[in-house]
Amino acid sequence: MKISLLLQAAKYNRGIAAARSTRASSSIKSSRPLKSPEPPFRRDGKSFDELFVDSEKPKKAWDGQNKDNFFRDKYAHVHAKQKAQHKREKEEKQERLSKKAQSMTYRNDQIKSHQPELELTYTERHKLLLSQNPNMEFTYGTNATKHILAHRKVKQIFTSFRGPGDIDPEILRACSDAEIPIRYKEPTKRLDIMAGNGVHNGYVCQTEKLNIPTLDSWPSFLNECKTGLYLDQITDPHNLGAIMRTAKWYDCDVVGYSPKNSASVSPAAVKASSGATEHLHLGKVFSPLNFFDLLKEKGWTIVSTVAPNTHVSIPKIDPDALSELKSQGPIMLVLGNEGEGVRTSLTQRSTYATTLSSPQTDIDSLNVSIAAAILLEKLNR
């Protein structure tokens, strides 16, 4: 116990002595004078520029001359070389493309020379078939093919079906009786080209074109007819075919049209008529005004259709009165297109005008094929 107290007292005395020595040294330092800092630059009168080793500005390469001229003279040969290189590359590319085109042409010629007629491209095959006989055409559709086989001279039938067991029995029987060849397994794309992208149902018929006479040369035939249709400016072949289908349904005797401003009886019209064109008496009229005068001489009643609220110089009759007119003598219905209707010159030469009224006002006209069906229905009551 006494020893620990003695050690603590000795330690305390050493601490007091160290503190006293520190205070003494700090008092000695504080009594010394402070030295002033030396200036960073010499103050002997020299300028700022003289303190640097080299104060001259670097010279530029074009000093003393025009900058544009300098670069033009320096790099003119470089541009010339680049242009020459681009020209050579362009010529080499054109030469490569020319050789490639010649090689492909030669290859195609070699392939075509070793291919049979059926292996040509679709378009070439189509053109080849058309060029064989300008009096032939390609009709299409199941019903149209059936009626054409019964009424026209057919060269051959193209079908996408695989064999005799797949095609329509009536078509197979007609081709067998007339010894008409059938080409099976024709690619659908080829049939599309032959049919002009029409809906062919897998049948395309190569047949002679429909021979349509001129009605002006049929004065004796007109004496035997009771009902007829004249189509003025019907430019849509599908409407034309639909009207002919309706005309056959109602047993219309004759259908006339002007080839100058109406659609022709094309394969599209034949397809739309479902083969009705093969059963109707069709006639071309090159002078409609003279034809109307001829009809009046033969005692025909001419009824032209007009739009509602249209002023005409001839009497108007109700469509329900058409059946009574038919009982009095032959009657000719005149139908115009949906945009302009029957031309005024033909309306003025008609006996009567008629119109189909609508119970509402949102739609001002019907499709011409629908209008033809309604009028023929009222005519045959």
UniProtKB/TrEMBL annotation:
Any one cellular-component term (Gene Ontology): mitochondrion
Region annotation (Disordered) ranges: 18-49, 80-107
Single GO molecular function: RNA binding
Pfam families recorded: SpoU_methylase
InterPro entries attached to this UniProt entry: Alpha/beta_knot_MTases (IPR029028), MRM1 (IPR047182), MRM1_MeTrfase_dom (IPR047261), Ribosomal_eL30-like_sf (IPR029064), SpoU_MeTrfase (IPR001537), tRNA_m1G_MTases_N (IPR029026)
The keyword Manganese is assigned to this record: no
The entry's keywords: Methyltransferase, rRNA processing, S-adenosyl-L-methionine, Transferase
Domain of life: Eukaryota
Compositional bias segments (type: Low complexity): 18-31
Keyword GTP-binding: no
Residue intervals of the tRNA/rRNA methyltransferase SpoU type domain: 229-376
Comp. bias intervals (Basic and acidic residues): 40-49, 88-98
Family affiliation: Belongs to the class IV-like SAM-binding methyltransferase superfamily. RNA methyltransferase TrmH family.
Descriptive protein name: Mrm1 protein
Source organism of this protein record: Starmerella bacillaris (Yeast)
